[in-house]
Amino acid sequence: MIWDVDLRQALVHDHSRFELDVRFVSDASRLVLYGPSGAGKTQTLKLIVGIARPDDGRVAVAGRAMYDSASRLFLSPQERRLGYVFQDYALFPHLTVRQNIAFGLRRGLLNPSRSFAAAAVERWVEAFHLESVMGHYPHQLSGGQRQRTALARALVNEPAALLLDEPFAALDKRLRQHLRDELKELQEQLRVPLLLITHDDEDLRVLAQEVVHLHAGRVAAAPPALEAAIAE
Amino acid sequence: MEAAWVALLLTLKVAGWATALNLVLGVGVGFAMARLRFPGRDLLDAVFTLPMVMPPTVLGYYLLVLIGTHSAIGSWLNHTFGIRLIFTWQGAVIAATVVAFPLVFKAARASFETVDPQLEDAARTLGLREVAVFSRVSLPLAWHGILAGLLLSFARALGEFGATLMVAGSIPGRTQTLSIAVYEAVQAGQDDTANFLVAVTSIVCIAVLLAANRLVPGRVALRD
Amino acid sequence: MKRHLTLCLATLLALPAAAADLTVSAAASLTNAFKEIGAMFEAANPGTKVALNFGASGALLQQIAKGGAPVDVFASADQETMDQAQSQGLVQAAQRRNFVSNTLVIIVPTAAANLPKAVNDLTEPAYQRIAIGQPASVPVGRYTKGVLEAAGLWGAIEPKMVGANNVRQALDYVARAEVDAGFVYATDAALMADKVKVAVTVPTQTPILYPVAPLAASANAVMAAKFVGYLLSAPAQAVLAKYGFGKP
């Protein structure tokens, strides 16, 4: 099993209560979390990567246990070694593209210098055609360049799996299509398991090997039309 | 006017130390208050802000009671290390630090609150431990606001009078800062000295403001 | 609305002129005695309110000379300050009078282990901090410096000096035991007999005589002169004697 997720969390915010109760297992290398906004997809992803804490449950990814309330196991996000791409990329605004990508390669108290060079960095820069913008800052980049920088940054650490929160949401249709195909190819090449959040049908059709439907904090049955689409 | 030179150097030394202390304390406390949530947080924030609104003489009195030679803290320091804080430049530093603390604390807290917590989370997913997240993400992004607070704090410490006079007294060369020296000169009718000291103080203040404008472009003000 | 506003303004402007106010600036050591004497004077002269302003004599002089403070009577703790006032034409020289005398003493905190027996004991290492009024503006500091200089001790003691802005502050420093010894007047020491004890009575080169005079610019010359006269009368002198002041 690549994905073994069993999570419960009750979130109380200003007198409203949101209960998450998500349970799924899958062997798919490209798994999609699908559902309307407010369904709890992002929250689920955060719980899996460890930047939010569940009330109880269990998480194992690529054969490695990361969280288990029964045995009091909780690996910090640092220890989980899962790559995470945020919805708005969360690029460090005070660092250049090169420094952003190289970020995880330096674990000390100082950021990598502007001229930091490493094989891992160059590899991703080439793969994503970011050579011309290496010295730029995030605010100077286009949407597509930002997305790729965020992806490169997550991949440079050689994560055990990659989690992406609506990676194409801010992009126009053509770019979206292009990057989607790129991602699929990348995943097939690297064989790194992918867990992706989206509410776009096309993303589903192209990328998903399996789909987990989330609705109001719970896994729901898939609508029949969608099942047919995925079967392709 | 050697006395004025001595007072100026002492004032810069006291204000410098106070600002250095506030850098550590203000940033530390500001970060903690920005990131932690606990019952009574607002009350604690008010307590930390108190020195900014309290009359300096009231603060001076509290300090006398807290660190005076016969207080719990003061007598312990005296018996263990032979350190007495009253009437020393170290006492003046403490008075200036307390008075100027809220300026750094508030600026730091406000600045850290503008740092997107997602960026800190991103750093964590990339394997950085908490200290590194602070030094590489939180602090660099909050730095401009903190610097503005530090400059204000330095200016405030430069001009501290009431609490300093009560805790450190007016001892030329040891605790007689510029503002106290002006006070003494006026009381003694020494107009020439007073005029000179006032001119020196004004020049120093203008220099601080000019430096502030260069380091922090735009208004030197607390960010909303 | 407009009528109310005018009425308010009229009241505010009228207030200062309501009662016959006498403003008296007096040396800090006279605080307790003058509060009593002020009340007695008010009782004896209905319609007059006595406003008292205490501080170091030098500081009080600056308030009058530089600030033009509206003072009617000035009582200082030494002749020198009054001489300065006189040379600047600020007081009615003809009505200047000495009205009390005082003595200089060395005090230590009651719990102090060391008790100096003479002035030069203060040069010993046991006394690290000594409260002395700022000689430039505080009479008790001037007397102290004069005594120490005459004894050739000023060089040894000045480094240990913690400057006080008025005699009461010097007293407070000793009472709080933040200093090892201090120079104050005998009358001040008597006020805090529970916190300080007198170690040495120090003879000064000139007797400590307090002068008082009405101000030349006083708006209330008649009352001012009356107050000066009252200080020399039996009831006021009795109060001063009660606090330990000597005859002029």
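qc> The two ends of chain B are 44 Å apart (CA to CA).
qc> done
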